[in-house]
Amino acid sequence: MEHALYDFLDQHQIRHQRFDHPPVYTCEEAARLTPGLPGAECKNLFLCDAKGRQHVLLAVPADAGVDIKALGEQLELKGLRFASPERLQRYLGLTPGAVTLLAAFNDRDRQVAIVVDQDLSRRDAILCHPLVNTSTLALPMAELMRFLDLTGHAPRIVEVPRRQEQAGRP
Question: Which positions ≥6 away from 62 have C-beta within 8 Å?
């Protein structure tokens, strides 16, 4: 699928820069192993409602703590929670550690809603895995939005509620 994604990007002349690196599984690993890449680091969460009928791919700044319960209320999705690795594979063709907005490419039936944090959407460029966690693409935000539109996944831009840190914690 990775090669098909690159073919799609080339076919639609979606500008990007590619950076290969060792596998990364968390935002912390990515920051340590790929410092200084030209774009906003983001955290991608694959979520579903309590009944597993509606799915959301959420992108927020890498350092953002998300209040998933409040987000569920905002999106009118009861019992919003992390989706299982099996659902991630079934709906986006991904394994944990490779979750990316570019997975909209794999959702040909448009069963997954894309939600992008408002702060992240204002960045000049964003960093995304190309369906694998051994490379990172830097895409201008306008190019990413065009990509999402081309895949039939016009994103919903929202102010994602942040998790409040517990008192006494740094």
Answer: 27, 30, 31, 40, 41, 42, 43
22-70 tens-digit pLDDT? 998 888 888 888 888 999 999 999 999 999 999 999 999 999 999 999 9
Edge-first strand listing for the sheet containing 17-20: 17-20, 135-140, 125-128
Stated as kind and residue range, the H or E segment containing 158 is strand 156-158
CATH assignment of 2-158? 3.90.960.10
CB 3 within 8 A of CB 10: no
In angstroms, rounded to a whole number, what is the distance separating the alpha carbons of residues 155 and 46? 14
- Residue 6 — pLDDT band, cuts 50, 70, 90? very high
| Tokens of residue 154, six digits | 């016009």
Please tell me whether the overall predicted TM-score, pTM, comes out greater than 0.70 for this model: yes
